[in-house]
Amino acid sequence: MGNQLAGIAPSQILSVESYFSDIHDFEYDKSLGSTRFFKVARAKHREGLVVVKVFAIQDPTLPLTSYKQELEELKIRLHSAQNCLPFQKAVEKASEKAAMLFRQYVRDNLYDRISTRPFLNNIEKRWIAFQILTAVEQAHKSGVRHGDIKTENVMVTSWNWVLLTDFASFKPTYLPEDNPADFNYFFDTSRRRTCYIAPERFVDGGLFATELEYMRDPSTPLVDLNSNQRTRGELKRAMDIFSAGCVIAELFTEGVPLFDLSQLLAYRNGQFFPEQVLNKIEDRSIRELVTQMIHREPDKRLEAEDYLKQQRGNAFPEIFYTFLQPYMAQFAKETFLSADERVLVIRKDLGNIIHNLCGHDLPEKAEGEPKESGLVILVSVITSCLQTLKYCDSKLAALELILHLAPKLSVEILLDRITPYLLHFSNDSVPRVRAEALRTLTKVLALVKEVPRNDVNIYPEYILPGIAHLAQDDATIVRLAYAENIALLAETALRFLELVQLKNLNMENDPNSEEIDEVTHPSGNYDTELQALHEMVQQKVVTLLSDPENIVKQTLMENGITRLCVFFGRQKANDVLLSHMITFLNDKNDWHLRGAFFDSIVGVAAYVGWQSSSILKPLLQQGLSDAEEFVIVKALNALTCMCQLALLQKPHVYEFASDIAPFLCHPNLWIRYGAVGFITVVAHQISIADVYCKLMPYLDPYITQPIIQIERKLVLLSVLKEPVSRSIFDYALRSKDITSLFRHLHMRQKKRSGSLPDCPPPEDPAIAQLLKKLLSQGMTEEEEDKLLALKDFMMKSHKAKANIVDQSHLHDSSQKGVIDLAALGITGRQVDLVKTRQEPDDKRARKHVKQDSNVNEEWKSMFGSLEPPNIPQGLPKGSDQEAIQAGKPPRSESSAGICAPLSTSPQVSEVTNVQNRKPTIQVLSSTILPSTYQIRITTCKTELQQLLQQKREQCNAERIAKQMMENAEWESKPPPPGWRPKGLLVAHLHEHKSAVNRIQVSDEHSLFATCSNDGTVKIWNSQKMEGKTTTTRSILTYSRIGGRVKTLTFCQGSHYLAIASDNGAVQLLGIEASKLPKSPKIHPLQSRFWDLAYPERSYVVAGSTSSPSVSYYRKIIEAAADPAPSLGTSICCRYGPKKTKKKKKKDIFSWLFYICFNLC
Hints:
Blueprint: E1 27-34, E2 39-45, E3 48-56, H1 64-77, E4 84-85, E5 89-93, E6 98-104, E7 108-109, H2 110-114, H3 122-141, E8 154-156, E9 162-165, E10 175-176, H4 181-186, E11 202-203, H5 211-216, H6 229-232, H7 237-252, H8 261-268, H9 275-278, H10 284-293, H11 304-310, H12 318-329, H13 339-348, H14 350-357, H15 375-386, H16 392-405, H17 411-425, H18 431-446, H19 458-467, H20 476-509, H21 522-545, H22 550-558, H23 561-568, H24 570-582, H25 591-608, H26 613-624, H27 629-644, H28 650-660, H29 669-685, H30 688-699, H31 713-718, H32 726-734, H33 738-753, H34 765-776, H35 781-789, H36 791-811, H37 821-824, H38 843-850, H39 857-863, H40 880-885, H41 909-917, H42 921-927, H43 929-936, H44 939-968, E12 996-1001, E13 1007-1012, E14 1017-1021, E15 1036-1038, E16 1045-1050, E17 1056-1061, E18 1065-1072, E19 1081-1089, E20 1098-1106, E21 1114-1120, E22 1126-1134, E23 1149-1159
C-alpha cells in the first residue's frame, strides 16, 4: 500500500464491532486495540478464536484486489512452514468500505511473554531465538519476505512454540528518513517508538513529495507510485535478518530494545552503536550473533540458514537440531489437537526423550544451567496441556510424567512451573486425580534442596492453604492420600523454614551482602513462623486422627507418625498424637486399626521417652489379651522393641514377663515366637541373678529341661513343650460357660496334685458335655495344665470377643456397604441356570407358564417375562406364523418358558437343535427376534446367560486340559496301602553278557525292554514272569545299533522303542506282533548318528506328527552347549491324542523325543 495513506484523515470513524454485522461465521468477542492503520478484534469461530484486522478504506483507488491475491499466494507458499502463521483469509466489504484479514488467535506475543511469569530461563530464550531464525529460514525458502518482524509479531504459545505472523508485504518497503509520519502509521502500532526496521529502508526524502506540495494538493502521494518504486521497493532477505536480530537482542536483554527511531537513523548514518544494550547480553555467542545480524551493511549479513549452521553447537545446542525441532513440530500439526493426545504421546516416548535430552550437554557458555535443563522445553508442553485435559487417564499420565521428570529439573522450575499446576489438580473433580496430585506434590517439594528468596513463604502462604480442603474431602481415597503424605509435607515445610533461617543468618554475618537490610530479627521471625506452621499442621493432623474412616487413621499411623513427633516436639507429640492414638484401641470391630497402633507406638514412645511407660502399660496389657491373634503378635513385637530401647521400667518388665510366659504354649506359632523374642530380650537386659531368680520361675512350666543360655532364641525354642492343640484351645475358648469349665479343670488339677481327695463330676450337664467333647478331642492331663496356664488370657479374650459380638449387633445397621435383606423384607428366589428342553405341548410347561402371572415385577425385570412374544401380524400365510399358531413354535425356550434371543445367546443348546431341525427358523429370527425378543429380554438376563456360557467354556477347557495332562502323564499306579516288599524271586535273567543299564516297561505292562553294555536290546514278555512257565527267555533281541546301549524308552501308548548308545547312535525301533508273543518282529524305523569325537555338548529335540507307523521323523531343534565329549543319557517321549473328523480313522499321535547329551 502506498505511503500516501499516512496523510489521509478518515471521514468517518466506526467501532470495530460494527464491521461484524453481516459476517455469519464469526462472532465478535472483544477489541484487541486500534490504530489509524488497522482496527484489531478477537472473534469466535466454530474452529476456535481468530484475530480479525479491519482496514477502513478511505481511498477507493487503492488496488486491494492485487493485495488480496498476494496474501492468498503467500498463504499457499507458507503452507508447510510450521513456524509461520500467515493470514488465513482476506475479505473485502464494498458495502462498508472495509477490508478484513483473518488469522488464528495466539494469546501471547514475545513482547508480553518476556515480562510474564514464569520468566524465561536461558535455555528457553535460546530455543525461542532458534525458532525465530528457523521461521525466517522457512519463509525465505518459500520465497516470502516478512517486512515487519518485531516482538509484537512473534507469537509464543503456552508451550514455547514460535509462530511468525502478520506478514506485511503490503506495507511500504522504503520510508522517508526526514518524516516519521509513515513510520508511525504503518510500523509503530504499539506507540513505543521502538524501531526494528533495517536502516537501508530509510531513504533520502528527495524521493518523496514535499509536505508543502501535499498540503496544496492532498491527492499528491508522498511516494511517487508511478515511478519505478515497485521494482526498487522489493523486500530483501537482509532486511528481515536485521529485524530478527533486534528481536533476539530484546529477548536476551529482558525487554530492552536495541533502537528507537532516532537511534536507528543515527545508526544508519554511523553516529550511534547500541554497544551499551549489547553488553547486557551475557552469553558471548548470542552477543556475536546479534552483532552480525544488525550489521549496518546489508551485504555483511548472512542468510538465516547460514546463521543456524554457524551457531550449531555454540549459541544453539546440538539437541535443537537433532531432536527437539522435529519432535516438537509434530505437536504443531493439526493431527494433535487434543491435550490428552499430547500427554499420551509424550508418555509413550518418554524413554527416548530422556535419552536425547539428558544425554547432551549445553554449550559451555551456559555454565549456570544444569545439564538437564533441556527438559524445560518438554515440561512446557506438558504443563500447557494440564488445564485442558478431559480424561482421568490422561491426567494421571501427566502426573506420572511430572513425577518422572522432577528429579532432573531445577528448583525454580519445580516451584514456579510445576507446583501451581499440581495445586490446580488438587481441585479436580475426579478423586483419583486429587489424591495423585497430592502425592506428586509432596514428592516434588521433597526434591527442593534450596529455597529461592522470593519463595521463602511458599508453604504457609500458598501450599498448605491450597491443599487444606483435602483433609475434609468427601472421597476417602483423597483423605487417605493426605494422611499418607502429611508427615513428609510437614518435614519439607520445616526444612524450608530452616533453610530460610540459615540463609538469613549467613546474610546477617556477611558484611558484603547486598540484602542485609532486608534481614530483621531472624530468630523472632523463625519462632513466629514455626509456631504458625505447627498450628496449621496440627489442625490437619487432628482432623485426620478424628476421621470417621478407620483406614485414614491407620494410614496416618503407618506413614510417618514418628516423623510427626519430631516435627511437633516432645510436648505436642504427647498431648496431640499419643492422646488421640490411645482412643483407637476402643474400636473393637477393626483389628487392623488396633494392630497399626502397636506397630507405630514404639516410635512415639521412643520420642516421648520412658516417662510414657506408665501410660502405655495398660494399653500393652490390653493388646496381649486382644481377641485377634494378629494384634497379640503386634503387641508382643512392640513390647520386645520397647524393652530393647529400655523404655520399660524393670518392675513393668517382670510383670509383662509373667503375662507373656504362658504364650510359650499357645497354639499360634507367631505368638510363641513373639513370646520367645520378648523373653530372650529380657534375659539380655537383666543380670544373671535376675534371670535365674525372677525370670526362670516363669519359664519352668513350659520347658522340658533347664537351660543356661536363655538369651538365645534357638536354645529356648528347642526346649519348649508342645503347644496346646488348636482344636482343644478353640473349642474351649468358644464355650459359653468358660468360667465353670476352668473351675472344674482346676479341681481336676488339685486332685492330681493331691490337694483334693476326690473330684466329683460336674453338676452342670453342659459342662459335663463340654468336658466329654474336649476329652474326645484328645485332651490329656498335660493339655489341661496348659489350658489352666492360659486361663487369664483365655478369660480376657473370651470377654473381648463377647464385647465385639455385642457391638457388631449394635453397629451392623449403620455400617456402609452392609445390606440386611431380612430387614428389607426380601425373600430369596431360585432360577435354574441349566434348562432341560421341553416340547411345546408339554402340559407341565404350559402350567409353569400359567404360573408366571404370580411373579412380581422385580422378578420379571431381572429375568424377563415368561409370556410368549407377540408375533407380528405382517407375516404371510404359509409362513412360520402358521406353525406357531398350530402349537409348534420354532422358538428357543427353557423349561420355565423364558425366551432367549437366538442371535445373542448361542449358548442355549435348544437353538442349535431347532436350527438343525427347521430351516425356516433363521427367517423368523431375522425378522421377528430383533424387534420383539430384544425388548422382552432384559440386560440382566443376557449378562447372566453370557456368564453361564463363559463358565461352561471355562469348565470345558479345564476338563480338556486335565484329560490331556492325564493322558500325557506316565501311568504309575501306587501300591496298595500296607504293601511291603517280600523279597520273592520272580525270575533270573542271564542272557545279557554285560552290565544292564536300563529297564523300561511298556504302557500296558505286557512287555518290558532291557539294554546292556553288550550292545543288545532285549524284549521280554511280562506274562512269563508270573511263574506260569519254567523258562524265562527274551522274545526279541536287537544288536545292530553298535556300541554299548546306555538308555532306552517306550514311546507312550505304543510299542515303539527309542534307544541310544555311547557311539552316538539313536534309533527308533518298532515291535510288531499280531498277538504277543506270537511271531514278534523288531525292525529299526529311523536312525541317526552323532559323532561323539566332536567336542560338543548339545540338547537335541526331535519330533514327528504321523500315524502310528511313524513314517516320518526329523530333527527340530539342536541347541549347542559347552564343548565336551558326551554321550546320550536319557530319552523322553510324549504324545497327545488328536481325534480326526472320521470316527474310523486311528488317532494321530504327536511324538516328541528329547535326547539330552551330558558330559561323559
